[in-house]
Specification:
39% of the residues lie in helices and 16% in strands. By secondary structure, it is of the alpha+beta class.
């Protein structure tokens, strides 16, 4: 299998590592009709070195990933924490509670790293953030907040190799899988990447999700100044969509619409992802689902390596962050990883039944010992995913009707009500019958 087969089988994550590592510049990342990123090859420039196939994590996994998932899907971990910035002004300025932004500022101020390589807001096109380099703490305000869209992470490779100095990398699980594979081949990358901060990720969305929310807000794309998926100024955590137009007017869209469109704009490769916890990072950071111990909002933090744990403790000792020990198991349970893995295995089985190839990592025994039956809903979304990657399906996504999303939101509310009602009835029955009956 080569990278063209990866695209053909709908399993390309669009990470862009193949593009970043190509020695002749023959690979470019192109936007598909349904709003994803995939590689295209200029055959006249290609030297047939096959380096792109060697670094693609869907074709070959890194040695480190093979070690990490040998026995468990939780990966290696030193300690689990709840963390937030000590400076309250940073709380409103980042994902969850601004912890990642706070750590990046501390790294530059303390001299821990010379450069930060991460996603930044794109003033020319707010819906398409880009990878960039930051060398000064004052530049941290440009660090992008939650974007939920495809990112050409291959640009990070070029930024790291361009100048000397120690770097901190911020990325998703699919990004760091590709980066670790590239680091096995390129010694310069190994020497310059000092620390990696991984974002715990449920999924990215096609670019069209933002266009849908713009339509919902009644804002024309050409009038857009800034777009935030999760802004906390309106209703607080976990945040609602906030759109600012060029006239300075603010348009808030309730979070229910962001959640309502997620299933429609989820790429198939995200449904096949088993690395929701960002197993190859030194520090994994995400939302504190299931582990909120107080009214304050903290980020869930997993220190995976010794150097990651040391960096967190240094930032705490310097008074930059507040850390509370919570334990890794609590964080994993809060992220509902078991249920997400079951969905991943279901989609893997449907892929195989359809004659499509699957990512190399899902061929391991760890993901083959469980046989799960796909529900009618699973099959429906699988077929929908395949359909939307074609032109007619992509056109439907571009004009997704509001009533269909509203119907999905209503059905989700009914489902949550029934689950809570079932739990309440079971608890009442247990009290009436007694535990020893």
């Amino acid at each position: 299998m080569d990278i063209l087969d990866v695209v053909k089988n709908h399993i390309c994550t669009g990470c862009g590592i193949c593009c970043g590592m190509c020695p002749t510049g023959a690979i470019a990342m192109s936007r598909t009709c349904d709003g994803r990123l995939t590689p295209t090859i200029n055959n006249s420039m290609c030297s047939n070195c096959r380096l792109c196939d060697r670094v693609c994590p869907q074709i070959q996994q890194s040695k480190r990933m093979n070690e990490v998932i040998k026995d468990s899907i939780e990966g290696f971990a030193q300690e689990g924490y709840l963390g937030r910035p000590a400076d309250d002004s940073l709380y409103m300025l980042g994902q969850t509670c601004g912890l990642v932004r706070c750590l990046l500022i501390y790294a530059l101020q303390s001299g821990y790293a010379d450069r930060i390589v991460c996603v930044k807001d794109n003033p020319d096109d707010p819906l398409h953030p880009v990878i960039d380099v930051f060398t000064k703490a004052e530049q941290a305000e440009q660090v992008a907040r939650s974007k939920y869209c495809p990112i050409d992470f291959g640009r990070a490779i070029k930024h790291i190799c361009k100048k000397e100095g120690k770097c901190i990398i911020v990325g998703l699980g699919c990004h760091l899988q590709g980066l670790n594979k590239a680091m096995e081949i390129n010694t310069l990358l190994r020497e310059r990447v000092k620390l990696s901060i991984g974002l715990i990720c449920d999924r990215v969305l096609r670019f069209g999700a933002a266009d849908f929310l713009l339509r919902r807000a009644g804002v024309n794309r050409k009038d857009l100044h800034s777009f935030d998926y999760r802004d906390k100024h309106w209703k607080g955590y976990p945040g609602d969509v906030r759109i600012l137009d060029k006239k300075g007017l603010v348009h808030d869209v309730d979070r229910k619409w962001r959640l309502g469109v997620m299933e429609y704009y989820t790429p198939l490769y995200c449904r096949l992802c088993m690395d929701k916890l960002n197993l190859l990072s030194d520090i994994s950071v995400g939302d504190p689902w299931g582990v909120r111990l107080s009214k304050e909002v903290f980020s869930a933090v997993i220190a995976r390596t010794e150097k990651g744990n040391e960096f967190l403790l240094q930032a705490k000792q310097a008074g930059k962050i507040i850390l509370q020990t919570s334990g890794v198991k609590v964080i994993v349970q809060g992220q509902n990883i078991a249920a997400k893995l079951h969905n991943c295995i279901k989609y893997k089985m449907m892929m195989q039944k359809s004659g499509l190839d699957i990512p190399i990592i899902l061929k391991k025994e760890l993901f083959n010992h469980t046989r799960l039956k796909a529900t009618y809903v699973d099959k429906m979304w699988f077929r929908f995913n395949l359909w939307t990657e074609r032109s007619k399906g992509a056109e439907f996504l571009n004009y997704l009707p509001f009533w269909l999303v509203y119907l999905s939101i209503t059905l989700k509310k009914i489902e949550r009500f029934l689950i809570r009602a079932k739990g309440f009835i079971n608890r009442r029955l247990m009290k009436l019958i007694g535990p020893n009956s």
